[in-house]
TrEMBL record:
Keyword Transmembrane helix included in the entry's annotation: yes
Membrane spanning stretches: 6-25, 46-65, 71-92, 99-117
Keyword field: Membrane, Transmembrane, Transmembrane helix
Membrane topology according to the record: Multi-pass membrane protein
Name the record gives this protein: DoxX family protein
Organism: Streptomyces beihaiensis
Pfam family, one: DoxX_2
Protein's cellular compartments: Membrane
InterPro entries for this protein: DoxX (IPR032808)
Amino acid sequence: MNIAYWTVAGLLALFYCYSGTLKVIRSRDQLRPMMAWVDRLPLPALRALGTVEILGAAGLILPPLTGVAPWLAPAAAIGFVLLQTGAIAVHLTGEDRRVALNVGLAATAAVTTWLATGL
């Protein structure tokens, strides 16, 4: 179960670290081709969302790795489930109805939550 956690959590952390970094450093014009919904959020909220994604990625990896506050790993994974639930709502209320990636990420975060409870 430990190998499964590190595999799934590592991939999820890589995805969110990349995605969060893009949201923090790129302009709205640079993000628009990848994320059609960026015009629906204020820029500070978009930057905050990217920061939350980066911190959540760290929360999946650092606590189990260091042994300090390991309860943060399942909390970060639950946070990603909630984040993707909100993302699905944002997509469905706008013109962009593509939610397959969001559903997959929510499911992966749910599996990570389950795997993290066995650490």
